[in-house]
Structures are given as C-alpha cells and as structure tokens.
What we know:
By secondary structure, this protein is mostly helical. It has a domain at 1-48. The protein has helices spanning 2-5, 10-28, 32-46, and strands at 65-66, 69-70. A hairpin with a 2-residue loop joins strand 1 (65-66) and strand 2. Helix 2 (10-28) runs antiparallel to helix 3.
Amino acid sequence: MRQLTANWNLIRLIRLALGILIIVEGVRSQIVPLAVMGVAFSALALFNVGCGIGGCATAPPPSKQFGDKTVEVEYEEVNKK
C-alpha cells in the first residue's frame, strides 16, 4: 500500500492517465485486448515499475581473457570494389 501512495511525479501521473484512457477507449470500442493493455499500463503506473532511467540497462559484455592478459581483437576493413 505504501508503494501506491509514495513517489508520485508528473510522468507517473501521465502514465496512469494514459492507461485509464486506453481502458476507456477499449471498453467504449469493445476491443478487449486494448482494454487489457490499458489495465497493464495502469498497473505499471500504480505500482511504479517499468524501465526508467537506467532501469533496464544491461552490463557491457565481458572481455575475453586468457590467463592474466586481455586479448584485443583486430578487425580488417573490407572494401567493396
């Protein structure tokens, strides 16, 4: 319950409003998948989950190491004639 009432900002309010708008439009036009998508968007805003700034960032791929040293990969440029 605490997560529902804390940390509200403009972007979260916009996400909730868009989710509600999608629900209303889905019900009004009788498109069930659209209404379900609106429920999902609204839930993301209510529970404040999703990919924010750096929220879904992945770590860079590890470099290949052999023993103590890192092996640099050499690339050869190929030109089309």
